[in-house]
Amino acid sequence: GYEEYGGEFSGGFMRGRGRGRGVWHDRGRGGHRGGYHGDYRGPDYFDGHNEGGEGHDGDHGDSGGSLSGARTLADVARKTTASWQGSLILKNSAFGTKLHTLEGSSDLADLLQDENNRPLLRITQRLRLDQSRLDDVSRRISAPATATILLSLPNTAAPALPDDTSVQSRPLRNLVAYLKQKEAAGVITLAGRDGASGASAVGSVLYAFPPCVFSLDLLRRAAPNLTEETTRDDHLVVVVVRGTAT
């Protein structure tokens, strides 16, 4: 169900706003009209928010219920811990990000690594946001103890970069805009190890969703007061599905 990325990612990816079909303009379960959220701001203020969030449980995300009062992504950033910092890489661009756990285990450091144990995750495939494929992701999320939902926010600190000197650092908003335009989620096959068992987690996958009805529904699982209007800042919603430990 995945498509390999070709060579189309370039400096021109900021142009275009997508074709506006399917889930992008349907009404979501929460009554939100789909589509992307307008123009994005560059929220450098996210990087100043605390790393030791309040009411955060390492195994269950925001199990203390503190996000029930969160009304903006900045609120979510303040009330949660950044479980992982690193770079998402697409073609020759690296996008620095912090991942804040919303639901599921936050023990991700060992899993979210490349084959050289660095916090570098390369997007090699994309998932078109057709309803049937989103339904499949929803089923994987609902499986007990296998999925973690995270909020990906910009990290303006110097990102981790691969040894390849052709890879350049770019702001996360560029990746958000690109995935918006392609009406797709980025897909990463994870090469790391499960933090709990230390075993290789065969079949573990990370999905990076741009702002849309589906991703807003995922955010609202943990923070029900978020709306389309209050989630306009640059972000992705990340779903990590663990495979079978071997």
From TrEMBL:
InterPro entries: SPOC-like_C_dom_sf, SPOC_C, SPOC_met. Residues 36-62 have a biased composition (Basic and acidic residues). Its main location: nucleus. SUPFAM superfamilies: SPOC domain-like. It comes from the Eukaryota. One of its GO terms (cellular component) is nucleus. Residues 73-244 form the SPOC domain. Residues 25-69 are annotated as: Disordered. Keywords: Nucleus, RNA-binding. GO terms for molecular function: RNA binding. Gene3D superfamilies: 2.40.290.10. This is RNA-binding protein 15. It comes from Hirondellea gigas.
